[in-house]
Here is the input.
Amino acid sequence: MLRQPGEHSSRKAIAFGLVAASFTFLSGCEPSTSPSRSLSPEVSRSLSRDYAPAHGLVVHGTGDPSVDVPAVQAAVDQGGNVILAGHFSFDAPPTKPLAPAFALTGAAVPPGAEVLIAKAVTISGPEDEQGGLTTIDGGTIPFYIAAQGQSVTIRGLRFVRPTSVAILAYAVSGLAISSTRIDGVVPFAHQSNGIAIVTSNVPNASTLGNPELVAGSLEIEGNDIDVAGGTSGVDNSLGLVVFNVGVAGAEVDARVAHNRIRNVTEPAIDFRRIGGRAIIEYNEITTGAPFGPNPRNQALRVVNTGSYRVAHNSIRCEWANGVATGIGVFSQVAAWPIEHAEIFDNDIDMRVPAGTAFTAFSAGIAVFGYAQNNVVRDNRIRGAALAGISIPSVFPLPPAPPATSQGNTFINNRFVDFVPSDADIFVGNHAFATRIVGQGTVDDQGTGTVVGPTAAARWNAIAGAQTLTHAAVSQQLGARIFAYLSLAQYNAASGAEDAKGGEHRASAPAAVAAASAAVLGSFYPDQTASFDALLAAQESESQRPGERHSDFAAGAAIGRAVGAAVIARAATDGFTSSADGVIIPVCPGCWTSAQGKIPVFPRLSEMRTFFLKTASQFRPGPPPAFGSPAFLTDLAEVRSFSDNRTHVQDSIAKFWASPGGFSNVAMAYTNQIATREIDKFHLNELRAAHVLAVMNMAAMDAFIASHDAKYTYWTIRPPQADPGIVPDIPLPNHPSYPSNHASVTGASMAVLAALFPSDANYLNGLADQAALSRIYGGIHYRFDMNAGLTLGRTVANYALEHDVDGHAAYALR
Here is the structure.
């Protein structure tokens, strides 16, 4: 018999005192729960009351099913804590009938089970001295749970080749199965499962089951499930199945995590039609080569209604056929669409045999049928298939009419050593308004597919390309263009949102696009026709599911009106490159202009700001005096970098430098960073436009404030103070203090860090690097860098404090 630590010899006497006793003696401990019948001496011998703190009833396995099955049944009938110890055999005909619903819905399960669990109970198996688990050999459905309104826990058991399913739950309110091992399952009627939590067969309109019977938390964690035993092409062998559970007011909250599941011929994890949510994460799935008869196999499947999150799983799909899918997200029933599922950070390895011919459903991840607004992001797909990510063209299959999969989004998925026979991403001809962001080849046969980010980010990228290809666009002008573009985008998106209650549902993407085309056309009049063509192309894409041409037209009208208002504001903002009236002081330590050139934007401080009250509102104090110890220390540092510049320092300096001193690399790059954050966090059109607007307007204010200080202090540049300093990047023709790069990137990254706090360290680190790059390049002092970063971050904080917070349009003061 099993002895627990701390037991004394009286335990042994108590246990053996039960040998000849009937169950009446045992029930004396819990008279309200005892069955009326008595047990045989052999069964009684296998039972003992555990006097450990858990007060569990210990059942000792004998290896004789005629003893073990009734002994375990007697124990679970009492409820409470039941401890199974040793080796059990359940290899006996099942005597506990299943609910009639299984036969009525055509479920491929036997008519009976071995042990019925009908009340709240915790069944556990302690490890033996060698670390082995309590073992249950054979049996047809060893545990059948029909405990409506009761909670059940099963942990620490090992099932060896049960028939049909190891644990079948039909009615329960709170179920936990953990640290359990299943070594093979014998199919019944060509069907086998490791664990099944079901109230019907596969859900459809005629098999609704009784989902109200299963409610509460379902925790399936840390199990090792090997369902080997099925015949390839003949048997359906699944790992975990959850069908038709949970209803409104009695939802399920499922977590399936840290399980190892292998040797399946059908899904290792299969969820269908749940009321509630399911989190499926950190599981390790290896299918093995044998496959089932189903024409569409998925290693992991979420189907029909429910809130699903599938994340951080590792899937190796080895099925030797051409229809395999790593993760399937779909619905075959229009009334039960699968919506808003999140499929992210999964590692999927499609390892089919060489020469396999792929069919339409072959993919690493497939989203199809009545599937709407699901997000597939940041997954890694390896191996080979028809496509890495797919929306197959036709589903359900004929004669049923095909479904339209709408508004699904694929973001930043990676195809690592992946060989598609078609493309990395396939969009079938019944897909509508699919959005694709990130790398990978695309075979698009759908309608309204958008390959790229939000309209705001998309037009922002167009503006970036313009600033980098027009030599006449200075850093200052480039920042101004981005500021007005983003201001127009946000006000247009806000106007479209406000107009939703009108006759037409104004399209926010259309409003953003039309405003963008108008503003960019005012700055690049020679490109107006190109911008109009891009706007027309966007209209043909139908950005939003169900969007009508009238919606686009309504949004575009709003965008054009906003664009015109922003252009009018820009025309009178006081921006000028003129140096009229500017007198360059002559003194020791004063900056001097390059021969034959006027200072760069000496009157930028006259430009109307966006957030600041005045250009001098946060003017930094004066720099160290020329020739002072502080000045000479920072000058010597610049000379040291100039004399001993490393390859890394040289690369950083040139990365952040503007080629030829004209194209606005720093601002174009900060906008790229903003776009990545927008994509990463899946911001909608209005929120994306708001991020770009507040960042770019704060950056322009920082530029204005930096120039105010530059032309107040007229600080000499390092190469002018020490001719031995040789810059390796262009030297801008304006005073040194403070650094524009530090000010502008400091402001930009501070805004993004506030809006995306989880990435704050990374974002602020970019600003630090941009500022330091100017010292590496030999054109700024460290006090320039520090003052610029402080100024930029102060401007950003002020902008955020006085921002509209994405709730209303900006006033065009």
Observations:
- Residues 1-38, 49-54, 542-546, 659-663 have pLDDT under 50 and may be disordered.
- Residues 173 and 215 are 5 Å apart (CA to CA).
- The two ends are 87 Å apart (CA to CA).
- The first helix runs from residue 9 to 16.
